[in-house]
Specification:
Blueprint lengths: L13 H9 L5 H7 L7 H19 L3 H7 L16 E8 L9 E8 L2 E6 L7 H5 L4 E4 L6 H8 L8 E4 H7 L6 H8 L12 H12 L5 H14 L1 H18 L13
Parallel strand pairs: 1-4, 4-5
Antiparallel strand pairs: 1-2, 2-3
Length: 261
């Protein structure tokens, strides 16, 4: 979908992008080749060539920030899967609903060929440095929960320049609900060994761990890793379906999207 995207070009909005798609121009190279036949001035043709060249160079350099700065927040999903190697899937567990009422207990980051969990009291402080290696962040409701919680916990945290929040992406596909509900509806994700565990159980498991339970932390980490790893196939599905709808000119479902999406 990234090569079919023109929204990050200077002066191109949704109406122009849609018109290009309808004209059969569905990637940067096609626009470059057909720019002279579109009735554009020489100056605009030169600008198109510059935009295509800049986009190609940024993609070759794996520069997620180039696209993150130019695309609307709600369109960051378009960089996937072209920048899959730079993508970190992340989920956190906490003891409360806000950083002023609880702490971060476990964070898992899945990406770059590895899945690593960070644990409070062990190595959680290493998370900010670890995240700097990624240019794309994927969460579920992370704009409202995970990222604000982590920013309060780590004032030095640098959030990757591209952030894809799957909660709002699925709203655009007409699918609402929590992470596990969406997994069940789509038949996506593996929760072997952590079936039936939910958010409140994560708080209880941390408390049991603090009281000395030898197995509670292991179950909590496995639960958090399932939440995180399952984000990858969910993003692949959402990006495929939404990209297909846009390029085919299909209207998006009418669903009330929460503020902030």
């Amino acid at each position: 979908m990234l090569r079919a995207t023109f929204l990050h070009f200077a002066g191109v909005g949704r109406v122009t992008e849609t018109a290009l798609w309808r004209a059969g121009i569905q990637d940067w190279q096609a626009l470059l080749e057909r720019r002279a036949s579109l009735g554009l001035s020489v100056a605009v043709q030169d600008r198109v060539a510059a935009e295509v060249g800049g986009s190609e160079r940024a993609l070759a350099a794996r520069d997620a920030g180039f696209f993150g700065r130019r695309l609307p927040d709600g369109e960051h999903w378009r960089v996937y899967p072209e920048l899959a190697r730079e993508t970190a899937f992340l989920d956190i567990e906490t003891t409360g609903l806000s950083p002023y009422q609880g702490i971060v207990t476990v964070v898992t980051v899945h990406g770059g060929g590895a899945t690593r969990s960070f644990i409070a009291g062990e190595d959680l402080e290493e998370l900010p440095a670890y995240l700097r290696r990624f240019g794309v962040l994927v969460t579920f409701n992370g704009r409202r929960f995970d990222v604000p919680f982590l920013e309060a916990t780590f004032p030095q945290l640098v959030v990757p320049p591209v952030h894809i929040d799957l909660r709002f992406l699925f709203y655009r596909l007409g699918i609402a609900g929590g992470l596990k509900r969406i997994e069940e509806r789509l038949g996506i994700g593996d929760r072997s060994g952590v079936e039936g565990i939910h958010g409140l159980d994560a708080v209880r498991l941390w408390q049991e761990h603090r009281r000395g339970s030898p197995s509670a932390l292991d179950r909590l980490v496995r639960y958090n890793r399932a939440d995180t790893v399952n984000l990858e196939p969910l993003l692949a599905r959402a990006a495929r379906d939404l990209g297909g709808r846009l390029l085919a000119g299909m209207p998006e479902p009418t669903v009330a999207v929460p503020a902030g999406g």
